[in-house]
Amino acid sequence: MSNCAIVGINWGDEGKGRMVDLISSDYDIVVRYQGGGNAGHTVINEYGKFSLHLLPSGIFRKDVISVIGNGVALDPESLVTEIDYVREKGIELSPQNLKISDRASLLMPWHKELDCLEEQRLKDKAYGSTKQGIAPFYSDKFQKKTMLAGELRDEKSFFDRVTPIMEWKNLTLKNVYGAEPFTYEKLKAWYDTYASRIIPYLTDTEEFFDSAMTEQKNILFEAQLGALRDIDFGIVPYTTSSSTIASYAPIGAGAPAMKIDRVLGVVKAYSTCVGEGPFVCEWSGDKAERLREEGMEYGAKTGRPRRVGPLDIVATRYGVKAQGATELAVTKMDILSFMDEIPVCVRYELDGKESDRFPFPSRLDDAKPVTEYLKGWKTDISGIRRFEDLPKEARDYILYIEDKVGCFVKYISVGAERDAIIIR
Ligand code: GDP
């Protein structure tokens, strides 16, 4: 038995979905353990190109069981749409290969509405939410004002408990935002549309993982977003509302006592960031535009242009430590082939001093990047499959990253397709 967590080291969008799709062939179970429909994990394989939001990226492997754990914000509307979409593309999904924790809390329609209303209220101070209801959902979860997916099984008791929650949410909708309240009829229509679609997949995932451990199954945990978006260790308040950190994986999956053997941290060869908040190494103008175009850096969920810059070693080292990464995958190396020299943000300057320590979140606004340049390789590397066949400059870049962040780079991704990978 061997367990691995695939996690983001930076701001998200590092290519985790691509790495899960690649290595899931070595695993029996792939589980999503936090976050929700705000994810956009891109996978390109023999079935086509997919942007997965709630479904684990292991769904394409016939022998893999996919699990949506209790830590996920389970939005039935988003999930049902996604299930129908992947089925249309020829993927077989059934209660045999897809399990949904009956302890996952339900993201309700009012969560999305409140997310939009709050971002509108904040105007130019908005957090840059994907408006999928994630922050209102997790705050309600911790207020114990959410329903468990397993409660869908009994309609009467579901409504006995959800109706007072709806009435409580209506107070905020009406009195804070001046919005239309939710009605029982609307809620009943929601239940009638989605409950029967979710119920067949509901599983006692603690029992499921208990058996999986007894049977020595290999389990792969798939994280959403990256360390810098973690609710505790990220750039507060520009974080997501859940824990993106590997050590949360067993809890959010439904196997709280499980040990993780490998933590594969995914790092993009340069930096990108979606949404608001400090981004010390950010570029602007023509050079940003060129990198964004070369890397096709537009959000998988929202289509928003991503902010771009060179690899931020300070943030990456912090992310590696927070995740407890035992190995790294560097993705999108092929994108840097157009550069004469490869810029790297190695330190921050703060209060007139240079440091390689990641500062306290509120100090990031004052930090300035200190950049070093490595020689570029200026040749197409997307067809290369062995480390020793990479141009020396590309190998040097990988060795430089290893040296600076203190973690072995096991995988180098040179294209979005499944086989465009160098394994060391
Ligand atoms: P995730 O959320 O971490 O799974 O990452 P995203 O799916 O948001 O973003 C990664 C994007 O980069 C997707 O469009 C992938 O298809 C693409 N991608 C991943 N690895 C590579 C690579 O090595 N080269 C290129 N050119 N594209 C890649």
List the keywords.
ten-stranded mixed beta sheet; binds guanosine-5'-diphosphate; alpha/beta
Description:
- The protein is an alpha/beta fold and 424 residues long.
- It contains 11 helices and 20 strands.
- It has a 10-stranded mixed beta sheet with strand order 9-7-5-2-10-1-11-15-19-20, sandwiched between helices. Strands 14, 16, 17 and 18 form a 4-stranded mixed beta sheet that branches.
- A hairpin with a 2-residue loop joins strand 16 (341-350) and strand 17 (353-355).
- Helix 3 packs across helix 4.
- The longest helix has 21 residues, at 155-175.
- The two termini are 22 Å apart.
- The protein binds guanosine-5'-diphosphate (GDP).
- The site of guanosine-5'-diphosphate (GDP) has 21 residues, from helix 1 and strand 3.
Element layout with pairings:
Elements: E1 3-8, H1 16-23, E2 29-32, E3 41-45, E4 48-52, E5 65-68, E6 73-74, H2 76-88, E7 98-101, E8 105-106, H3 109-122, H4 134-142, H5 155-175, H6 184-198, E9 202-203, H7 205-214, E10 219-226, H8 249-253, E11 262-268, E12 271-273, H9 285-295, E13 307-309, E14 311-312, H10 313-323, E15 327-331, E16 341-350, E17 353-355, E18 368-375, H11 392-405, E19 409-413, E20 421-423
Parallel strand pairs: 1-10, 1-11, 2-5, 2-10, 5-7, 6-8, 7-9, 11-15, 14-16, 15-19
Antiparallel strand pairs: 3-4, 12-13, 16-17, 16-18, 19-20
Helix pairs in contact: 3-4
The structure holds guanosine-5'-diphosphate.
Residues 8, 12-18, 40-42, 44, 300, 331-332, 334-335, 413-416 line the site of guanosine-5'-diphosphate.
